[in-house]
Amino acid sequence: MNRPSSLRSLNVLHVLNDGFYTSFLLFLPFLSLEFGMNLTQAGLLGTILHSLGLLCALPAGTVAARIGGMKLLILMAILYGASYVMLGTSVSYAWLFPAFMAAGVAFAMFHPVAFALVARFSEGKTRGRNMANFTAIGDVGKIGISSALTFVIAYVGWRYAAFLYGAVALGSGLALFFLQQ
To answer: Which of 20, 27, 59, 155 has its CA 20 to 30 A from that of 102?
Structure first.
């Protein structure tokens, strides 16, 4: 993959990563109703998502150095897909833990590695613009994908919405994986 297409792939992955991360918590009210969760239980799931989003960012550079940065980011998109499928197939409160954990790990590994790759793929005079654009493009996912989710849930229900988002993440990750070969 050449530099411009790598930067485009990183931007797509950033939109998806931030959008899927922000959207994950929007399922909590529906999960609470489905599984009879109280506020403490819902809060614990959010805490798991955010805590792993912090803790797993620390070893991200080491993991990327071993398997390759783009490959790691693509694997994290696939992990997001798996987390949404796990969410959609959950049958109890306990089944939600692996889904929230997987989403937290996928989010954590993304940003440290992606920003390093944007810097690497950018020429000296365009690096600042590319970094700024990359930073802003994540907000498109946060707003656009999470806003769309509310309509998708209203139309098809939370389980089908989770499957749909899982399919988009899996499809995007697999497409980028094969495009990289």
So the answer is: 155
Block residue for tokens 């005079």 = 125
Amino acid at 145: I
Distance CA 134, CA 139 (A): 9
pLDDT in tens, 137-149: 999 999 999 999 9
CA–CA dist 85, 179 (Å, integer): 24
What residue has token string 């403490």?
Answer: 40
Cα distance between residue 94 and residue 31, in whole Å: 12
Q: Determine the Cα–Cα distance for residues 94 and 166; give it in Å rounded to an integer.
A: 20
For residue 99, what are its two tokens? 């889904």
Mean pLDDT of 115-131: 89
Neighbours of 103 (CB within 10 A): 29
In this prediction the pTM is: 0.89
- In which band, very low, low, confident or very high, does the pLDDT at 157 lie, cut at 50, 70 and 90? very high
CA dist 68 and 54 (Å) reads 21
b/e 59-78 (16+ beta carbons within 10 angstroms → b): ebeebbeeeebbbbbbbbbb
DSSP state of 157: -
